[in-house]
Model the fold of this input.
Amino acid sequence: MSGSDVHFQSNPGWFEPRDTRSVLAFHQKLPGYQPTPLRSVPLVAERLGVQQVWVKDEQNRLGLPAYKILGAAWATVQELQARFGPFQDWASLSELSSQLSEHLPLTLVAATDGNHGRAVARMARWLGLQAHILVPEDMAAARQEAILSEGATLQQVSGSYDVAVEEAALLAGPQHIVISDTSWDSYTRVPAWVVEGYSTIFAEVSAQLADLQEPEPDVVSVQMGVGSLAAAVVQHYRQQGFQTRVVGTEPLSAACVLRSLQAGTPTEVPGPHPSIMAGLNCGNISPLAWPLLQKGLSVTVGLTDDWTRQAMRLLARDGVVSGESGAAGLAGLLCLKDQHPALWEQVQGQRILLINTEGATDPEGYARVLQDQR
Done:
């Protein structure tokens, strides 16, 4: 049975515009930078009964199969600058790396369900640093191997992603720099930079829509783990001049944003978190993201994996390879339309933006979903 739970906010708030041009300029200096595609998906639009659905397709971002490198790279360099700068102007990461040589050895530390940790490890490799990545014990083997392929040290923890976050925090020190996309007491600077790093996605979307002479979307549906990407969506689209509504989606078994909104305060959803949406299996909302999501989300949807499987198969029919977490934004809209039609009518728009945050990072799991047509 495809289950769900929802939270609706009729009048979400507005935020002041942020100047993120320096973030985009930074990403443009990284190896292999180019904007990811903005794809039209007509079969998805037909299924939802709307005029247009766009997918910002992050399945190949700077040579990695997910968007996370945008936040990890920006946060890493900003934190290194704060600790060891100011750096001289640099045109390539090798030039930046040479300015770090006197501070070596340095190790970047991160907890991950897959994509963020690999991105931090890639950044460490680019800069000539070491990486220590902590992962939950049930992570798919393919995702673990991908992290190891970056030259990182991999540590399995006995427990969930949230346990990995706690253990990563304990490793912080002068030579061990924690690059986390979630925050905790006294640790907010790096996660704020991670959120800021994701702004490049939406700067690109705005430019791509302008090139097509298309307006900004009426609705953005975004997947949520600790809430960092959704916070970036809210910061970009919930500002004066936009009429965009933001839908947040997450696994029902790890619906920490939904439960926090219902309770009116950050609320833990204890594990285990068994959803196939591995990158979203987070039991605690980031305290940094909390005020943004509390004020900026229109609808929050907690859903079971059946909805995500449907979304993965539907996106595949439109030629988009989307992993379990990548398809969650569409899954939330399918769930709203089919199970909560009155709520769907209140947030529905004719132009919808989805973010495919990952490709098939677990190829065997992806193949199973596509073969199972139930």
